[in-house]
Design goal:
CATH architecture: 3-Layer(aba) Sandwich
Structural class: alpha/beta
Number of strands: 5
Distance between the termini: 24 Å
CATH topology: Rossmann fold
Number of helices: 5
CATH superfamily: HUPs
Length: 145
């Protein structure tokens, strides 16, 4: 039924909307076992340091990295129950640009993402990130609200 999509990318930051986006992507992927699901998380320690006036980003970076690794490890259990191939990926840098770079390099067919992400110290994605992805993506973007 969804033979036009073979690779789905889900930017994930553990926010409620990213959880809904992942559930939507899983539902889509289950319709065809040949669909590959890639879940990606992007941390941006420079943004957190700028926002909170921290001059040394090393402790923030380590905390973000550990939190992201734990989050993806927990997520891998859920993904292992799928009949589809599913992978998790962790990147550092600008969230929007990292998502688009991944979509381009993997030649994804669809991006499924929340309209907004987390805020505060845990912030990974912003509403501006989903806007950036919609504008720059070479493939369709399904925004979950």
């Amino acid at each position: 039924m969804l033979n036009m999509f073979s690779k789905i990318v889900v930017p994930y930051d553990n926010s409620e909307l990213s959880k809904k986006a992942l559930d939507t992507a899983i539902t889509l992927a289950k319709q065809d076992e040949g669909i590959l699901l890639d879940v990606i998380t992007v941390i941006n320690p420079n943004y957190a340091a700028y926002r909170y006036g921290v001059y040394s980003i090393d402790p923030i970076h380590k905390a973000q990295l550990e939190e992201a690794k734990k989050m993806l490890k927990d997520l891998e259990q859920k993904l292992s129950e799928l009949p589809n191939q599913a992978n998790t990926h962790l990147f550092e840098g600008s969230p929007g640009a990292s998502i688009i770079d991944f979509v381009n390099s993997e030649q994804a067919d669809l991006v499924v993402m929340g309209s907004r992400g987390l805020s505060g110290l845990k912030e990974v994605f912003l509403g501006s990130v989903s806007h950036y992805v919609v504008q720059k993506s070479p493939c369709p973007v399904f925004i979950v609200k």
